[in-house]
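User: Hey, my collaborator sent me this sequence without any context and asked if I could get a structure. I don't really work with proteins. Can you help?
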Amino acid sequence: MLNLLVIVVLSYLVGSIPTSILISRKVRGIDIREHGSGNAGGSNVFRVLGWKYGVLVILLDALKGALAVILIARLYLGSFPFPNATPFDDFTLVQIIAGLAAVVGHIWTIFANFKGGKGIATALGFLITIITVDMLIAFGIFLIVVFVSRYISLGSITAAVSIPLILVARENIFGVDIQSYHTILPFVIAIALLVIYTHRANLIRLLNGNENKISLNKKSK
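Assistant: No problem. I've predicted the 3D structure and written it out in C-alpha cell form, which is a compact way to encode the shape of the chain:
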C-alpha cells in the first residue's frame, strides 16, 4: 500500500508543476492567472502570450500525464494492496491511478494555492498511452473544432465528450475489439464529466456569446 501511495504522491507532484505560470513569468514577468481568462492552462497562454508558448505549455502539460504513466508507475513493486476486480492487469491499473493523480495535480496544484489548469492536456498525455487510436481521433476533432470556431474551450469540451462516443462506435458499430472496453468506457465518461465541470465558466460564456476567441496569427511577444 505504501508503494502505491508513493506513486500517487509523485504523480500528483509531477502533475502539479505549474508550467503555464513558470513560462509566463519567465517570458513576460507576469502571473498568467491575472490575465486573459485567469486560467493557468495552455489555452490562456495561447491567448495571452501567443501560439508558440501556448503550444509549448500544452505539450509540457501532456508530458506530465505521460511521465506519470510511463515512468512513475514503473516504481510499482509487489502485489496489489486490494483485490483487483478490473480486467486490467495490476500494472495497467497502477498506470491509470498514476495518470489520474497527475490530472488532479494539474487541476489543483499544490505549488500555486491549488489553482491550476483544467486538465485537458495532462489527461491527453495520460490517456493516449492507454487508448491511443481513440485519443488521436479525439485530438483530430479538437483541432477541427478550434480551427473552425477559434474557441479552444469548445474544442476541449467537444473532444472530451467525443472520446466515449468514439469508443462506443468503434466497439459496437465497427466491430473493433477494444481491450477492457467495459472498464474503460465508464472511466472516460468520468473524465469527460470532469472536463465539463472544469469548463463550466467557459460554457456559460459560450452560451452568452462572450467567450474569447483565439487568433492563430497572433505573434508572441
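In plain terms: The mean pLDDT is 89. You can pass these C-alpha cells on to your collaborator as they are.
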